[in-house]
Amino acid sequence: MSHVTSKKTPGDTQAQILSATLSLFTGQGYFNTSVHDIARESEVSIGSIYHHFKDKEGVARALYNDMINRMSSELATIKKNHNTAHDRCYAVIELLFIITEQEPDIMEFMLYSKHREFLPNERPVCSSQPFEIMREFVQDGMNSGEIQDMDLMVASTCLFGGAIRMITSSMDGLLKKPLSSYIDDIWICSWRAVAT
Amino acid sequence: MSHVTSKKTPGDTQAQILSATLSLFTGQGYFNTSVHDIARESEVSIGSIYHHFKDKEGVARALYNDMINRMSSELATIKKNHNTAHDRCYAVIELLFIITEQEPDIMEFMLYSKHREFLPNERPVCSSQPFEIMREFVQDGMNSGEIQDMDLMVASTCLFGGAIRMITSSMDGLLKKPLSSYIDDIWICSWRAVAT
DNA sequence: TTGACTAGAACGAACGTTCGATCTAGAGTT
DNA sequence: AACTCTAGATCGAACGTTCGTTCTAGTCAA
């Protein structure tokens, strides 16, 4: 309450910490970021960080879980709004491209950091729920005859592999044009790879 | 001279250090591996390590350069032995799969570690020479009419993206069968994505 | 007064690196 | 053959720094 420096709403401090941490982790990596860095960047004391999170790894884990959950819920929306594998998978790639352009840190943390080095007990991203939902879309497409019958893993990697590598290329600064301008070309190639 | 316990040939110690380092870096990551770990694992003293390499980063850099050079020379051989984009690109995927199965540490260090976190001045892998040669194969294929005319980056990521993600899936333990058993399925899909 | 929260100084462990000592192999000299 | 010299390789204890974490003191709202 009171005046100039307004009081924090609950959850505010956590959000500040997580936001600063995301930017530091993607900018310089988990191991090049110290807890002292996080405290400085988020304008919060070390004590607060350790009050809200068990340890440094706990901050990373919270970040990771937030990300997985958000992605899962976005994919659930896609599943609800589209019925064919064609439309669903296109929507997935579109979503990934939009996130890459609008919130590059999130995409970088999701696709481009080696979680297993700092979250030793976490399964690899590719076996996380969002990736499983994406494979489910592909499986449905094979069942309905939209997608050629083949190994599910082969179909999934061929269908999404190009787009995902395009995203990492974009994050590496290898693309001349904005990522989203490539989406139709990518989609035509990727869909042709697996369509019946 | 020399008999039972043979004396070291020059370069032997460096090779010992590099081999132990590769296995440690891929097993637990650069930042989870201390120079003391490297000394213990390679059965060489810390002093020797610093005699042969400028610092810890220098060891990583030597490893990285070895890898890039070896890959470049393998790709040059492929270029010499095959004439069509079709044959060259298939040979590239075959090569990548073989390395993944026979020397997984090398592939893991090449494709799966975040070099930029510990080699800050290195360009991303995807702009390294081997990847450029791969794109050159694709460009040649577009010029000769084997591959549809489109953005080079789009064609390259679509042609190799599936295989590369299959490799990372394999390293994540997501595949039921050995990686090489998928090669023909992958190739059919990937080639169909870009072929005229 | 209580309990949730914040602050930042302090701590011990682990890290990357340095350094002087020691060892080895070979060249040069007699 | 015997000895000396030298260059480079090897060694590991020791150093200073940085890190993640803990701790005590304090603030503020209810």
Low-confidence stretches of chain A: 1-8
CATH fold-level assignment of the largest domain in chain A? Tetracycline Repressor, domain 2
SS field, number of helical segments of chain A? 10
The radius of gyration computed from the alpha-carbon positions of chain A, rounded to a whole number of angstroms, is 19 Å
Key features?
homodimer, 196 residues, mainly alpha, Arc Repressor Mutant, subunit A, Tetracycline Repressor, domain 2, 2 domains, DNA-binding
Describe, in short, the structure shown:
By secondary structure, chain A is mainly α. Chain A has ten helices and no strands. Chain A has two domains: about 10-55, Homeodomain-like (Arc Repressor Mutant, subunit A, Orthogonal Bundle), CATH 1.10.10; about 60-195, Tetracycline Repressor, domain 2.
